[in-house]
Design goal:
Number of domains: 2
Structural class: alpha+beta
Order of helices and strands: HEEHEEEEEEEEHEEEEEH
Distance between the termini: 47 Å
Largest sheet: 5 strands, antiparallel
Radius of gyration: 19 Å
Number of strands: 15
Strand content: 35-45%
Strand order of the largest sheet: 2-1-5-4-3
CATH topology of the largest domain: OB fold (Dihydrolipoamide Acetyltransferase, E2P)
CATH architecture of the largest domain: Beta Barrel
Number of helices: 4
CATH class of the largest domain: Mainly Beta
Length: 214
């Protein structure tokens, strides 16, 4: 099988991303590739320097994955981003960055589709979010509705202090966890306060334990 060129591989990755996600590749000092989305364009050009304060710069300095909100001071628009550095022979060589729009700096609700309309729900009332049958379901204290965003997109917007990804199909509000039970192969089962049970998969179990300090 012929090997993919870097450009071909990047084009495939961009096809996998949503229309709201911009994508950038950089060396340690400058951007080498940028693909803007339909919703947000940071107007990066190949050859532009990686500016201090950007999500890319933070990942390069910390030498680890960084995912957080960045205000409008750098590019003129606020955004949520995830940047992951890449290495060769143990040395950092650059970074890959995904960017989605920030709808508001102080966003505090998620608006779900319910029956024939939409209902704004405070983040504090969301118990967990589940991806199932190509839909995203939001379970709240009083309702269950659907949303157009994927779980990956939700991870950018939800408050990091109490929403945790615990499975490829679940994000939970830790304030609604009643008990945690061990399951097979280093996994867990969460008994939620609405009497539902949510799994913690093996790939997320170490991260989950670290965040909840147990």
């Amino acid at each position: 099988m012929e090997s993919l060129t870097v450009d071909s591989l990047i084009n495939v990755i961009c096809e996998l991303l949503s229309d709201e996600t911009s994508f950038a590749v950089s060396t340690e000092t400058e951007y080498t590739y940028y693909h803007p989305s339909k919703r947000i364009d940071l107007k990066i050009n190949p050859g532009d320097p990686v500016k201090e304060g950007t999500i890319t710069h933070k990942a390069l300095i910390r030498k680890q994955k960084v995912s957080e909100f960045i205000n409008r001071d750098i590019f003129g628009v606020p955004y949520h981003g995830t940047a992951i550095p890449y290495f060769h022979d143990g040395k950092i060589k650059g970074c890959v960055t995904a960017v989605v729009p920030a709808l508001a700096d102080a966003r505090s609700v998620v608006t779900i589709k319910l029956n024939d309309g939409w209902v704004p729900i405070p983040f504090s009332d969301v118990i967990y979010i589940e991806a199932r049958d190509r839909k995203t379901y939001v379970f709240t204290k009083d309702n269950m509705g659907t949303h157009k965003y994927t779980l990956n997109e939700f991870e950018y917007f939800l408050p990091k202090d109490f929403f945790v990804r615990c499975h490829r199909s679940f994000i939970v509000n830790v304030h609604y966890i009643k008990e945690i039970y061990p399951d097979t192969h280093s996994t867990f089962i969460l008994a939620m306060k609405n009497n539902t049970r949510v799994p913690v998969s093996q790939s997320y179990s170490s991260y989950f334990r670290k965040l909840l300090l147990f």
